Amino acid sequence: MKARRFFTYFMIFLASTWTLHTITNNLIVDPHLDKFLVHKSLGEAFNQSLWLVFLRVHIVTACLVLVTGLLGFSGRILKNNRRFHRRNGQVYMVSVLLSALTSIYLIKDATGGVISSLSFSLLEVVWLFATWQAYRTIRRKDLVGHRAWMIRSFALAFSNTTIHLYTLLMNSVFGIDYTLAYTIAVWASWTINTCIGELVVRNPNLFQQKAGVPA
């Protein structure tokens, strides 16, 4: 239980700090994302205004995913306010869909070119699949399956966070070129997160489903 509690607090800390950092840095400090665009190989057809619209929607919905995802795992909320839990889950599902759909436009200009674009494409497919399975299982009243697929979906939702953490580590600490570091991080983030999600699902000390508790 101590490991589970530590993991829960760590996820709350990581999600809240990253959400605050992302909104502050990308929407206030550098609203045109000039520092981020420096690392991209962009052609003459690149439309920065339209790109920014899609990116801002992506940022806002991605942050909503983190917040609603954490609230969805709250046993206290589930026990005391099941209606809020359901509405929160609906917001999570819609936010995942919007975040994934906006990525379709953003992927083509991903830092790192085709290699990064391929990884992002696979990530979106796997993420949407996991989220859809979470919806299907709860519709069938499969509470254990629903929680398991929500853990998988939420682990993938953290990919954007871990991408930048891995990039920062490789670029700033080990001196790897930013574009190369980002490309490696794009692949490492969702694959490692998927493994961590499976570890949580399969480890009884971290993943325990209370019987008879509806979602």
Keywords:
single chain, 215 residues, mainly alpha, 79% helix, globular
Could you write a compact summary of the structure shown?
79% of the residues lie in helices and 0% in strands. The chain contains nine helices and no strands. The chain starts with a helix and ends in a 13-residue tail after the last helix.
Write the layout of secondary structure elements.
Blueprint: H1 2-29, H2 34-37, H3 48-72, H4 75-80, H5 82-107, H6 114-139, H7 143-157, H8 159-173, H9 178-202
Please, could you describe this protein's structure?
- This protein has helices spanning about 1-30, 35, 50-70, 75-80, 80-105, 115-140, 145-155, 160-175, 180-200.
- With about 220 residues, the chain is mainly alpha-helical.
- Helix 1 packs antiparallel against helix 3 (about 50-70), helix 6 runs antiparallel to helix 7 and helix 8 (about 160-175) packs across helix 9 (about 180-200).
- The longest helix is centred in the first third of the chain and has 28 residues, at about 1-30.
- The chain is globular and about 50 Å long.
- The model is unreliable at about 210-215 (pLDDT under 50).
Order of helices and strands: HHHHHHHHH
Mean pLDDT: 86
Spatial extent as radius of gyration = 18 Å
Biggest beta sheet attributes: none
